[in-house]
Every structure is written in structure tokens, then in C-alpha cells.
Amino acid sequence: MSDLWTQRWDQRYQDDAFAYGELPNEFFKLQLDLLAPAKILLAAEGEGRNAVYAAQQGWHASAFDISIEGQKKAWALAKKNKVTIDYRVGLLEDLGFNPNEFDTIALIYAHFPAEIKSSLHQVLNTYLKSGGYVIFEAFSKNHLEYIARNEKVGGPRDLASLFSMEEIQADFSDYEIILLEEKEIELSEGLYHNGLGSVIRFVGRKK
Q1: CA gap 189, 115 in Å, rounded
Q2: For residue 113, what are the contacts with CB-CB under 8 A and spacing of at least 6?
Q3: Structure pTM?
Q4: Which of 43, 155, 182, 190 is the residue whose CA sits 20 to 30 A from 197?
């Protein structure tokens, strides 16, 4: 992971305002509420909004990101909401998570650099128990058209960092597909996700 990539996210999270708001992502909330609380890992968790929500619902919430500034905001949000989260900063393979440790893994706008995104999905897969769930929402490859019309909707501007349903099927090939769709949605999340966008949504159960 390049220093420039880390600096980009540290700069985004340095402001007092929460870049993507303090409330959980709507799709994540909807899907999490269907599951019994257990252990969850949240990838590229930024300022902690989804991890804090999970902890509020009784989950043991672990999270990771590359941004120290994101971690600071997440801990502050957790304190504000009187919950505790395990939030680690660094490269995924160095963070000490264990095989088969988690019951659920959430990837909510976890747009890793294009050259490593599939390999990171494979590492995350090893951390999930058999029978565990993945909850995924991120921008689709068609999202570039939406950015062209409205920059405020946010999202990566390079095609390779965006997702297709075929990529998700390939990366999570050993999963029962509960939901897999590309959908146009209206986003209203903090400063950087506002307006119509195109997303891939996926819920899978590991076989």
C-alpha cells in the first residue's frame, strides 16, 4: 500500500465532520439486522460508522483500515455511543486476525487498489467461518457515468477499482449467493456520498 494512498485517506478523515456520516450504511444495517450477533470484521472501515452500529447491536466488532485519522474518529464515535470496537491500522496480513475467526465480514465501499482487491478478498475469506456471511456494497463499473453527471456522489474514478457482478462471483466462488445485484440507489452519506449512484450488492454464505 503506497504512502500516497495512506496520506489521501488521512487527509480525508482529518476534518471534524464525518466524511460519510455517523450513521451506518443502510444496506449494511438492513442485512446485519437479519443476523444473530456474533463476531464481525469490517474492512476498510474508515471512521467507524458501521462498526459502531454493529457494537450497539451486541456484536463483537473488529475493523481495520490504513488510516490513523480514521481510527481516531472511529474511537471517538464509539466513545460517544458508549460501545467498544477493536480497530486496527495497517496492512491486512500484518494485523493478527486468525483463520475462521469471524461469523460475518462486511465490505462497505471497501475499494482497495485495483491490483490487490481480489487478493485481499481471498485473505478475508480465510478469516470467515464456514457458514459465515459476507455483506458487500460498493460502486459498480457503470458508476463512472454517474460521477460524470454528479461528482458529489463520490467513488473511484478508475474503472479497475470498481466492481462487476462477475468479479464478485469469481472472488467469492465458494459461497451460496443469497443476493447479488447491480442497482441504482440514492446515497446520502456525509460529505462524499450524495446523489444517484450505481452499486453492486452481495450477500453470500460461505460453504
Answers
A1: 27
A2: 1, 2, 5, 161
A3: 0.97
A4: 43
